[in-house]
């Protein structure tokens, strides 16, 4: 089912046991490489590759999680489970990057991403 279906409930759990209640969009960057096109003076195009962390941009509900402790924590694993599609995403050896911001008008935490050395996807 995971090839043509999207959306639905996505649950998120850290290996510490903490659960995040995601909001809005979950953007995944599962590749460990980014490519850039470079145009030469003769009009030919070359490709320049850069190594990058596998990452995920997250927005979640403020449920009192100690963000300072989480930003300083040891590396952890993160699992995203798409209930509707049956797809599970695993980030291993992850940590948070960015600057967490809490919007007290709507209780939304933004400004952070997960960076990881390992990523794996499992389709049901």
Beta-strand portion reads over 45%
- Could you tell me the mean pLDDT? 94
Number of individual domains: 1
Helix content: under 10%
N- to C-terminal separation? 8 Å
Q: For the record, what CATH class applies? A: Mainly Beta
Tell me, what's the shape?
globular
What are the low-pLDDT stretches, counting only 5+ consecutive residues below 50? none
Query: What structural class results from the helix and strand content?
Result: mainly beta
For the sheet with most strands, the description reads: 8 strands, antiparallel
Provide an overview of this structure:
With 124 residues, the protein is mainly beta. It has a single domain, classed as Elongation Factor Tu (Ef-tu), domain 3. It has 1 helix and 10 strands. It has one helix at 67-72, and strands at 10-14, 19-20, 27-29, 33-39, 45-51, 54-61, 76-82, 87-103, 108-116, 118-123. Strands 1, 2, 3, 6, 7, 8, 9 and 10 form an 8-stranded antiparallel sheet that branches. Strands 4-5 form a two-stranded antiparallel sheet. Strand 4 and strand 5 (45-51) form a beta hairpin. It is globular and about 55 Å long. The N and C termini lie close together (8 Å). The mean pLDDT is 94.
Topology:
Elements: E1 10-14, E2 19-20, E3 27-29, E4 33-39, E5 45-51, E6 54-61, H1 67-72, E7 76-82, E8 87-103, E9 108-116, E10 118-123
Quick synopsis:
With 124 residues, the chain is mainly beta.
Task: Sum up the structure in keywords.
single chain; 124 residues; mainly beta; Elongation Factor Tu (Ef-tu), domain 3
């Amino acid at each position: 089912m995971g090839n043509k279906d999207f959306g639905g409930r996505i649950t998120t759990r850290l290996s510490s046991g903490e659960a995040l209640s995601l909001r809005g969009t979950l953007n995944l960057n599962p590749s460990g490489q980014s490519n850039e096109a470079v145009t030469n003076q003769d009009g030919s195009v070359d490709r320049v590759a850069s190594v990058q962390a596998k990452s995920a941009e997250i927005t979640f509900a403020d449920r009192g999680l100690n963000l300072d402790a989480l930003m300083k924590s040891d590396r952890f694993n993160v699992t995203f489970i798409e209930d509707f599609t049956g797809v599970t995403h695993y980030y291993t050896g992850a940590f948070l990057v960015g600057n967490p911001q809490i919007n007290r008008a709507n209780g939304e935490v933004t400004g952070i991403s997960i960076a990881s050395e390992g990523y794996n996807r499992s389709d049901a």
